[in-house]
UniProtKB/TrEMBL annotation:
It is found in: Membrane. It is a multi-pass membrane protein. PROSITE patterns: DNAJ_2 (PS50076). The keyword Signal does not apply. Belongs to the DNAJC25 family. The keyword Kinase does not apply. Its main location: membrane. Residues 54-128 form the J domain. Keywords: Chaperone, Membrane, Transmembrane, Transmembrane helix. This is DnaJ homolog subfamily C member 25. GO terms for cellular component: endoplasmic reticulum membrane.
């Protein structure tokens, strides 16, 4: 083992080696202090699907539920929380107002819209299973929400036909 005075030799070599050792361990100290402050990775993101709620829990069904069971659960909850028929005096609705019932109804409707379509449900299940793929979930969600429902080629074909018919008739 080297003597303690080796690090403080006059030529500076021992001191430089000590600095290299400190610099190589500095990132470990920074990492240890910064990891607890990082947000945890969760699949539930505000603004995607049901927000911070699990759509299956909102409807009260399991993940293996069939479409008929999901539709039945939606109809029961929608009947109870629909803003037009909600009565705060009903049993089981203690502490709920019309505004909270309306928010609950919108959440129930969003959960049903997510789970009734097989493709959307597959994307949602993938999001629950792989929470670390944050950006892919955003891409899949907004791609499904913003893509046109009708093929653009069909729209162009119908427009050209309508203009041609108009020109012939006039």
């Amino acid at each position: 083992m080297a003597a303690p005075t080796e690090y403080y030799r006059g030529d500076g070599e021992g001191f430089t080696a000590c600095l290299r050792t400190v610099k190589s361990w500095w990132w470990v100290v920074v990492l240890l202090f910064s990891v607890p402050s990082l947000p945890t990775v969760t699949a539930l993101v505000e603004g995607l699907y049901c927000g911070t709620e699990v759509c299956y829990d909102v409807l009260g069904v399991t993940r293996e539920a069939a479409k008929a069971e999901i539709a039945r659960a939606y109809r029961q909850l929608a009947r109870r929380y629909h803003p037009d028929v909600f009565r705060p005096t009903e049993p089981g609705s203690e502490g709920e107002t019309h505004e909270s019932a309306q928010r609950k109804f919108l959440l129930i409707a969003t959960a049903y819209e997510t789970l009734k379509d097989e493709d959307t449900r597959r994307d949602y299940d993938y999001m629950l299973d792989h929470p670390e793929e944050y950006y892919q979930h955003y891409y899949a969600y907004y791609r499904r929400q913003l893509t046109p429902k009708v093929d653009v080629r069909v729209v162009i074909l119908v427009t050209i036909c309508a203009i041609s018919i108009f020109q012939v008739c006039v």
